[in-house]
Specification:
Blueprint (H helix, E strand, L loop, with lengths): L13 H6 L9 H29 L6 H19 L1 H6 L9 H35 L1 H7 L2 H18 L2 H5 E7 L3 E7 L4 H35 L10 H44 L7 H28 L1 H10 L1 H11 L1
Antiparallel strand pairs: 1-2
Helix pairs in contact: 2-3, 2-11, 2-12, 3-5, 3-7, 3-11, 5-6, 5-7, 5-9, 5-10, 9-10, 10-11, 11-12, 12-13
């Protein structure tokens, strides 16, 4: 929809102009990319909806970490419903057909959800760091209520940080096999454009990644320190302490995987947009168009992979899924027997 999306005009040859301006080529990506986006939507909507349902249904799942996970699932659902379908239409259609309001609205929501995802991942990493470095203090302050307040603040902050999109996003006239309308960012100057792209990169990618890296560096240092033995050397207390540490370690590993997936999925498009704006010899051609399309598919796929991670790495999620859908697991047991 915006500078990171598919608004790109392929070069026209003179003989094409003579043949007719109203016909445009139907490229492979015109059906392949929407098909891929449809698959992402199906998997993402089902998976993230199940995550929210399981957390809300089972009381033992209402922990601070799971509140952040539910917030992450909510951002993915909004992104999949409000942004992906409109982006998918850019590939088979020659231009934007939904008007100026939807142009601003979709681009704004996309930026809000991406920003909320970044800040939520940062909050989750900070939460895991707090648990690891200050395990006793965290018992008092890490409550679902605090996580809910933080999540609300995340959404408010994301709306504020994304507001510049409403200023620069608009309908522009273009030409590709005839006059077309495009939903794109329009800046007063190249300096404004570069400043805005850099702002987006820092706010929605670099700063969260650096903050998360700092949190996990502290965690690694803390884990490397010797643990304190119980004062009364009670075996049951010691066993409970080891079990708690083991559970927290598994949760921390799951959060690490989620963060790494975000960095890997969103990294290519962020780097491409920076290259597109700052490299003096950047040339818009079919090769760069294919790279941008691949990078977009990578970033959009991130909205559907998190529930898969919870299913494979989250022991509490696995148990809750079994309780919620016992008939599926009974069937599996019968087949195995």
């Amino acid at each position: 929809i915006n500078g990171s999306e598919a608004n790109f005009s392929l070069p026209r040859h003179r003989e094409d102009e003579e043949e007719g301006a109203d016909r445009h080529p139907f490229l492979t990506d015109a059906w392949l990319v929407p098909l891929f986006f449809s698959l992402i939507m199906l998997v993402g909507l089902v998976g993230n909806s199940l995550v929210i349902y399981v957390i809300s249904k089972h009381r033992q799942m209402r922990t601070a970490t799971n509140f952040y996970i539910a917030n992450l699932a909510a951002t993915d659902i909004i992104f999949l419903v409000c942004c992906v379908p409109f982006t998918a239409t850019l590939y088979p259609l020659p231009g934007w057909i939904f008007g100026n309001f939807m142009c601003k609205f979709v681009a704004f929501l996309q930026q809000v959800t991406v920003q909320a995802t970044c800040i939520t991942l940062t909050a989750m990493s900070g939460d895991r760091c707090y648990v690891t470095v200050y395990p006793l203090k965290s018992l008092r302050h890490r409550t679902p209520r605090v996580a809910m307040i933080v999540s609300i603040c995340i959404w408010i902050g994301s709306f504020m940080l994304s507001s510049p999109i409403l200023i620069y996003q608009r309908i522009e006239e273009g030409y590709w096999y005839g006059p077309r309308q495009y939903c794109m960012e329009r800046f007063p100057s190249k300096t404004h454009e570069r400043a805005f792209i850099l702002y987006q990169f820092i706010a929605a990618y670099l700063l969260p990644v650096l903050t998360i890296s700092f949190c996990y560096t502290l965690m690694v240092k803390r884990v490397g320190q010797p643990t304190v033995e119980p004062v009364d050397n009670n075996y049951q207390v010691h066993l409970l302490s080891e079990r708690t540490i083991s559970i927290r370690s598994k949760v921390s590993k799951m959060v690490v995987v989620i963060v790494l997936l975000f960095a890997v999925c969103w990294g290519p498009i962020q780097i491409f947009v920076l290259f597109q704006s700052f490299h003096p010899n950047y040339e818009a051609n079919y090769a760069t168009y294919k790279i941008k399309t691949w990078a977009n598919c990578m970033s959009y796929a991130n909205s559907s992979v998190n529930p898969i991670v919870y299913g494979f790495m989250g022991a509490t999620f696995q148990k809750s899924f079994r309780k919620t859908f016992p008939f599926l697991f009974r069937h599996k047991v019968r087949d195995g027997s």
